[in-house]
């Protein structure tokens, strides 16, 4: 497959800037792989109609932290966006970050954060054209430092949500209701459609839930700059698959029940951690698995996805799962029918039958 095969014209007005008023009331498109049929459902919560007792949903329970900060450069006072990626060393308060504009920031520069410049950081390393290592100059306990740092941050909404500034409620809505393991700088967007009410109704129907963790990084939004997809390298992301998830998923597979991967990150996790026998295995580590057509999936027999941006690795994985022709036909209908795209957009359910 070539990069150019994932091009489509997306009107700006169809890129969702806000989530649906109720999480489970975004729209839902259903693709049936065997028949090629495409259904349009009014609400995401209609997903209930496709699952029964002992079916399993696999969720990514990573938790987003407020990773976008704005500081001022010493002497010049220039406003600098600092995007926290991950903590490198707790004791030394070292963080891997992106800075923008990068050309203004050099080793030795100090940045001041907060209305009273209460948080100070020093640039100690240049790692890439935009990347830096910051050392935060803070003497208190680590928990106190993290609380102070996060209080300065805002929800790290992706760049395609561009029409508005961040708002206080964004941090709650840019978080799945089952999020618990902190470490992501972007939400696993397909999980955002699940409300507490919908989860309860699925439980009452006998559906089981399994949780895995992948700390979603900005690599999900990085531009691909090669036409030949075999030459693209994904950023590595940390992931965890524990025994309980393996037990739940493998029992469903062995019992002939549906296993639904909620989102592209879950697909990458379970395809990284699958054994040669098709069973899910425990795993702790990192993955840079890049899935694009053609690809033979081993674990899930259905998938929840969002409507993703043109040229994105997320669209490529979805097309690998649903079949390139069917998924792109679904996107064509979504554009015609006014579906909303992006992190806060509408949802797609892909069924193998």
Automatic annotation (TrEMBL):
The keyword Isomerase applies. Its main location: cytoplasm. Gene3D superfamilies: QueA-like. One of its GO terms (molecular function) is S-adenosylmethionine:tRNA ribosyltransferase-isomerase activity. GO terms for cellular component: cytoplasm. Pathway: tRNA modification; tRNA-queuosine biosynthesis. Keywords: Cytoplasm, Isomerase, Queuosine biosynthesis, S-adenosyl-L-methionine, Transferase. It is found in: Cytoplasm. Pfam families: Queuosine_synth. It catalyses: 7-aminomethyl-7-carbaguanosine(34) in tRNA + S-adenosyl-L-methionine = epoxyqueuosine(34) in tRNA + adenine + L-methionine + 2 H(+). One of its GO terms (biological process) is tRNA queuosine(34) biosynthetic process. InterPro entries: QueA, QueA_dom1, QueA_dom2, QueA_sf. Its EC number is 2.4.99.17. The keyword Isomerase applies. Transfers and isomerizes the ribose moiety from AdoMet to the 7-aminomethyl group of 7-deazaguanine (preQ1-tRNA) to give epoxyqueuosine (oQ-tRNA). Belongs to the QueA family. PANTHER family: S-ADENOSYLMETHIONINE:TRNA RIBOSYLTRANSFERASE-ISOMERASE. Monomer. This is S-adenosylmethionine:tRNA ribosyltransferase-isomerase. It comes from Paraprevotella clara YIT 11840.
């Amino acid at each position: 497959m070539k990069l150019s095969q994932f091009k489509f014209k997306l009107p700006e007005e169809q890129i969702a800037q806000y989530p649906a008023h109720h999480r489970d009331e975004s729209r839902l498109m259903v693709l049936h792989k065997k028949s090629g049929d495409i259904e349009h459902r009014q609400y995401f919560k209609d997903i209930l109609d496709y699952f029964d007792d002992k079916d399993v949903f696999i969720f990514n329970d990573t938790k987003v932290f407020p990773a976008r900060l704005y500081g001022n450069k010493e002497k010049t006072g220039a406003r600098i966006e600092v995007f926290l990626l991950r903590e490198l060393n707790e004791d030394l308060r070292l963080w891997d970050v992106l800075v923008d504009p990068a050309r203004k920031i050099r080793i030795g520069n100090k940045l001041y954060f907060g209305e009273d410049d209460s948080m100070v950081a020093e640039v100690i390393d240049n790692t890439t054209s935009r990347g830096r290592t910051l050392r935060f100059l803070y003497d208190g306990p680590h928990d106190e430092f993290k609380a102070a740092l996060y209080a300065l941050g805002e929800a790290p909404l992706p760049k395609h949500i561009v029409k508005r500034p961040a708002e206080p409620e964004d941090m709650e809505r840019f978080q799945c209701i089952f999020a618990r393991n902190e470490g992501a700088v972007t939400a696993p967007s397909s999980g955002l459609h699940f409300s507490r009410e919908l989860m309860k109704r699925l439980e009452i129907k006998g559906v089981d839930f399994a949780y895995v963790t992948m700390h979603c990084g900005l690599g999900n939004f990085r531009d691909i700059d090669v036409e030949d997809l075999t030459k693209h390298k994904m950023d590595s992301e940390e992931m965890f698959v524990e025994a309980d998830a393996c037990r739940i998923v493998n029992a469903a597979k062995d019992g002939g029940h549906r296993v639904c991967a909620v989102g592209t990150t879950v697909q990458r996790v379970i395809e990284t951690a699958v054994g040669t026998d098709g069973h899910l295995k425990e795993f702790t580590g990192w993955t840079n698995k890049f899935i694009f057509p053609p690809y033979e999936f081993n674990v899930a027999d259905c998938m929840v996805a969002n409507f993703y941006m043109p040229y994105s690795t997320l669209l490529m994985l979805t097309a690998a799962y649903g079949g390139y022709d069917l998924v792109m036909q679904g996107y064509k209908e979504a554009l015609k029918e006014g579906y909303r795209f992006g992190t806060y957009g509408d949802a797609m359910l892909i069924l193998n039958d």
